[in-house]
Structure formats: structure tokens, C-alpha cells
């Protein structure tokens, strides 16, 4: 059975769920908010936290750079806003230090080539390919060359595009994440049964789920269908300003989802019908006839 190691955690297709809390840009450019979210994730047993790393000049389309953007910090261009939200080396050094102090795994989704080089400075344990980069062959090949586990998000992608990306990443320790990239995703668009198809189509890889829906139940359902990596955006308060907040879960949701995801493997059992020890006690009390 295929195994992937991310720091001290082992992930398999039949083992316990690995729960990733995506902080992303929900920190709103504040290192203190990022630390508070890390604290909550640690308290409630989230296995890893994830950020996003971009060079705004490369990632923002030219026709959007100078568009005005209303923000809590005043009106600015869209490019200025993206820069305002971006953590640099000082912040990531502190995140790295803080997560090590807390015993928390952290990594990030790079959105461009320089951001891969930037994250390598911190020897991150794995990389997440954002759905927007699934069709960028050179980007995928660069990540593959680093010989670290890769988590591939498949939102906005056709089956053919997914297959081509998996072929490019052949030989990597790979997790393929079913995903709908709407924020938040509609219930009718989640298509969780596709997880079963991914399990059949790619038997040599770990299959996961990156959810952007509201609530936690669909993410638990994804785990029962065979997703052994589950990622959800996490925040302190969904009412905070920001594009990803509405598709995030806050403190009570983090607590409940982490608790339940880590129980799924226990709930499912081994699939063999047995009379349990506790049932034997009840059986002696209630079943006084057995003539079959």
C-alpha cells in the first residue's frame, strides 16, 4: 500500500485522515492573526497548516493591476492590495519558528516559480499545487525535481487535464485532491462521488478532498468515501474581511471537523461482521431463543 510521509505523519489510502487547515490569505496580512489561527489549529488537532505564496507582479493579470480596490486600509490599486496581503521573508521566518515551537507542520501553495525558490529556503515538507497551476507543465516539473510530496488540487480541471498532470508528476509522492474551486461551492456542485472514481483511476496514489463548501458535513462524507487527506480553509471569524472567509470554517467548526475526521477510520472498521464484546453482554440478556 502506498505511503507518503509528511514530516512525522504517515498518510495511506486506508489510514487516518490527514487534516490540513488552509490559512491561505485569511490572515489579512497580519502575522498576529496568522499565529492565532495556528494556535487554534494546534489546540484542536489539525495536522498541518497551509499558506499561499505569490509574487504579485507575476500573478496579477496586467489588465487588473491598476483597477481600484476598496479595502479596510483604504482604496488602492489591486496590485497594491495583493502586495499588502503578501507575507515576505520576515513573516515566514517567524511562521517557521512559531510552528516549530508549537510542533505544527506548515507548508504553502506557491503560485509562481520564484515562490517555489522562496519556500525552499524553509525546507517545507511538501508542496500544494493550486488548481490554477494544474496545467502549467514547467511549474509541475520544477516541483517534481525537488523530490518532495506533492498535493495536487484539481478544481476547474477536466479529466484529461488531471490525467496529463498526474503523468507529468509520475514518480512523485502524490496526493490527488478532488476540488470545486467556487468560493463557497454550492452543495449540488460538490460531486463527492468523483472521489470513488479517482480512487479507481489512480490506485497507486493517495486521494484527498479540498473543500470550499459551507459547513463540515460534506468534508466528513468525503473522508468516508476514501479521501484520506482533507483540506479546509480556516479562520478566526467568517465575518472578517476577505475573499476566502465565506468558504472557511471558524473555531467551533475546526474543533468538530478535526474531531470527526480523526474518527472516520475507527467508524468504518474493517468491514467484517462480528459480534462485539459489548454486544455479547446484551445478547445474553435479550436472546433466549436460537434455533436457526
Structure summarized in a few sentences:
The protein has 292 residues and is α/β, with parallel strands linked by helices. It has helices at residues 31-43, 56-59, 78-85, 89-102, 113-120, 137-145, 159-168, 194-201, 217-224, 251-261, 264-268, 277-286; strands at residues 3-6, 9-12, 18-24, 48-53, 68-71, 74-77, 105-110, 127-129, 150-153, 174-179, 206-211, 229-234, 248-249. The chain is built from twelve helices and 13 strands.
Structure description:
The chain has 292 residues and is of the alpha/beta class. The chain has a single domain, classed as Aldolase class I (TIM Barrel). The chain is built from 12 helices and 13 strands. The chain has helices at residues 31-43, 56-59, 78-85, 89-102, 113-120, 137-145, 159-168, 194-201, 217-224, 251-261, 264-268, 277-286; strands at 3-6, 9-12, 18-24, 48-53, 68-71, 74-77, 105-110, 127-129, 150-153, 174-179, 206-211, 229-234, 248-249. Strands 3, 4, 7, 8, 9, 10, 11, 12 and 13 form a 9-stranded parallel β-sheet that branches. Helix 1 runs parallel beside helix 4. The protein is globular. The mean pLDDT is 95.
Amino acid at each position: 500500500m502506498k505511503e507518503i510521509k509528511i514530516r512525522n505523519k504517515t498518510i495511506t489510502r486506508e489510514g487516518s485522515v490527514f487534516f490540513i487547515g488552509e490559512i491561505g490569505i485569511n490572515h489579512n496580512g497580519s502575522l498576529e492573526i496568522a499565529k492565532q489561527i495556528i494556535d487554534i489549529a494546534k489546540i484542536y488537532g489539525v495536522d498541518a497548516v497551509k499558506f499561499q505564496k505569490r509574487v504579485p507582479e507575476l500573478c496579477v493579470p496586467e489588465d487588473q493591476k491598476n483597477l481600484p480596490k476598496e479595502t479596510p486600509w483604504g482604496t488602492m490599486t489591486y496590485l497594491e492590495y495583493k502586495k499588502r496581503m503578501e507575507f515576505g521573508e520576515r513573516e515566514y521566518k517567524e511562521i517557521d519558528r512559531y510552528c516549530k515551537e508549537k510542533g505544527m507542520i506548515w507548508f504553502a501553495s506557491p503560485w509562481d516559480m520564484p515562490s517555489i525558490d522562496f519556500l525552499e529556503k524553509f525546507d517545507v515538507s511538501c508542496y500544494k499545487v493550486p488548481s490554477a497551476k494544474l496545467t502549467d507543465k514547467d511549474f509541475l516539473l520544477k516541483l517534481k525535481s525537488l523530490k518532495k510530496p506533492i498535493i495536487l488540487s484539481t478544481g476547474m480541471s477536466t479529466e484529461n487535464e488531471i490525467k496529463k498532470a498526474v503523468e507529468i508528476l509520475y514518480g512523485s509522492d502524490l496526493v490527488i485532491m478532488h476540488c470545486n474551486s467556487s468560493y463557497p461551492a454550492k452543495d449540488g456542485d460538490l460531486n463527492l462521488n468523483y472521489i470513488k472514481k479517482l480512487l479507481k483511476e489512480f490506485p497507486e496514489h493517495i486521494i484527498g478532498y479540498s473543500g470550499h463548501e459551507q459547513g463540515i458535513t460534506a468534508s466528513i462524507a468525503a473522508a468516508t468515501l476514501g479521501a484520506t487527506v482533507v483540506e479546509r480553509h480556516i479562520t478566526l471569524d467568517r465575518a472578517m474581511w476577505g475573499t476566502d472567509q465565506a468558504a472557511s470554517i471558524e473555531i467551533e467548526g475546526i474543533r468538530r471537523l478535526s474531531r470527526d475526521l480523526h474518527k472516520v477510520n475507527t467508524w468504518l472498521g474493517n468491514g467484517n461482521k462480528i459480534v462485539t464484546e459489548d454486544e455479547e453482554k446484551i445478547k445474553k440478556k435479550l436472546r433466549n431463543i436460537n434455533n436457526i
